[in-house]
Design goal:
CATH topology of the largest domain: Trigger factor, domain 2
Structural class: alpha+beta
Strand content: 15-25%
Number of strands: 11
Distance between the termini: 57 Å
Radius of gyration: 36 Å
CATH class of the largest domain: Mainly Alpha
Number of domains: 3
Length: about 450
């Protein structure tokens, strides 16, 4: 077998494979023996069909299959051994092989080659880096969240916003009197803070226990079937029958009282003896929020670096016709219209992929299993942190991350995140960072735009 590669231009080549009978004959004979053992043919016992009949019926198809397998194996080995920087898969050219009559064959493939370019970064290259400001308000919100989680319910005498009310609901007639045989709900529970209508909500301002108020549930909750059905303890289909006023005799007012900022809370959130007073606790909370923002800043840095490097390198040359054929081959069910519409974007993504590969190689970035495991734990930790859970036990993180690593798509995503995290860290130390303080709100707006 002879394989050769002839460049057409800088970004395309033709790979030619010449196969002789001696290259495949032994494999074909062996495959036909296997076929003979399995074939059923009238007049012969299984495995006893004459080889001449097996060759006559199956010889050509077996030869084609064995030649194809041999060719794929040898072509892949040639590309690997000769370090052919190929994009996509080889595309077969038309050939006039007559498998029924010929013994020697020649096959040709179009090859799309990756464009050659250099990418170097130094302190002469300046890229923006956004330092997201952690405000006192953010810290206060986070601290309040911890206090709410450690809070307790207390019974009070007068209503304040977000208190919970419990009492007797009674349907009224058009004259404002309790309706005979009308609906009554004992132990009805509601929170006026969640009412949609401000006028109805205001009726409850300053209310005290053992007082009776009149309001319209349908108006208060903007005819929301689910909320009204829950309050009135009826089916959603029955809600439409209750549009009038109700009286509400307040029997109980319950208020959530946030937990104290004490050592018990500090230890629960941060771990034992990490913070010993409120100032230290708030400082650690601020530090935690800031660490979450670093990942966001690094992501934006990589986005800006991508744009900077692609602008610096300029438009790369690709074998467009071949690349479109490859794209169509990979998206047969979507057709040529899809290729035409998405080709430019696909090339843009491919360009960054090639650039990133060079940067990864230049910085000797390698990923080990322990890196992926660590990223899985860090991702899990960040998910818990979104719900205000900072001091999550390692055992719990371990269990969650193990479940994540069971899914191949999750592993691939984690691998990409590890590569980008390591690349970001390496490049931050090479280029000149133009630090820009920014609020979280304005930072998020940049992605919305």
């Amino acid at each position: 077998m002879n394989i050769s590669l002839q460049n057409v231009n800088n970004v395309s080549a033709v790979l030619t494979v010449q196969i002789e009978k001696a290259d495949y004959q032994e494999k074909v004979e062996k495959a036909l023996k296997t076929v003979r053992q399995r074939v059923n043919m009238p007049g012969f016992r299984k495995g006893m069909v004459p080889m001449s009949l097996v060759k006559k019926q199956f010889g050509t198809s077996v030869m084609i299959e064995e030649i194809d397998k041999l060719m794929q194996e040898k072509v892949n080995a040639y590309i690997k051994d000769n370090q052919v920087d190929m994009l996509g898969a080889p595309l077969p050219k038309e050939n006039n092989a007559n498998f029924a009559a010929d013994e020697n064959f020649e096959f040709s493939f179009d090859i799309a080659l990756a464009p050659q370019f250099n990418v170097e970064l130094s302190n002469n290259d300046t890229v923006d880096y956004y330092d997201i400001d952690v405000t006192d308000e953010m810290v206060e919100q986070q601290v309040n969240m911890y206090r709410q989680r450690n809070g307790k319910y207390e019974k009070v005498e007068d209503y304040q916003d977000k208190d919970m009310l419990k009492g007797l609901l009674a349907e009224l007639d058009e004259n404002g009197n309790t309706k005979e045989e009308g609906m009554q709900v004992e132990g009805a529970v509601m929170m006026p803070a969640y009412m949609k209508n401000d006028e109805q909500k205001a009726i409850f301002n300053g209310a005290k226990t053992n007082t009776v108020l009149v309001f319209n549930p349908s108006v208060a909750f903007d005819n929301n079937e689910a909320e009204l059905a829950s309050l009135l303890k009826i089916k959603k289909e029955e809600v439409a029958g209750y549009k009038g006023n109700f009286s509400f005799q307040i029997e109980e007012i319950t208020r959530m009282v946030p937990g104290d900022l004490n050592q018990e809370l500090f230890d629960q959130v941060l771990g034992a003896d990490v913070a010993h007073n409120e100032d230290e606790f708030r400082a650690k909370v601020r530090e935690s929020i800031a660490s979450q923002f670093v990942a966001d800043s690094d992501y934006k840095f990589l986005v800006d670096l991508r744009n900077y490097v692609m602008g610096k390198i300029g438009k790369l040359e690709f074998a467009d016709d071949l690349m479109k054929r490859i794209m169509l081959e990979n998206n047969k069910e979507k057709g040529e219209e899809f290729v035409t519409k998405n080709y430019d974007k696909s090339i843009e993504e491919l360009t960054w992929h090639l650039i990133k590969e060079k940067l990864v190689k230049a910085n000797d970035i390698k990923v080990e299993d322990k890196d992926i495991t660590a990223m899985a734990k860090e991702t899990t930790r960040a998910q818990f942190a979104q719900y205000g859970m900072i001091n999550v036990p390692d055992e719990l993180l371990e269990n969650y991350s193990k479940e994540m690593l069971k899914k191949s798509e999750s592993v691939e995503a984690l691998l990409n995140r590890v590569v980008e995290a390591k690349l970001s860290q390496a490049l931050k130390g090479q280029v000149n960072l133009n630090h820009k303080p920014i609020s979280a709100e304005d930072f998020n707006k940049m992605f919305q735009e």
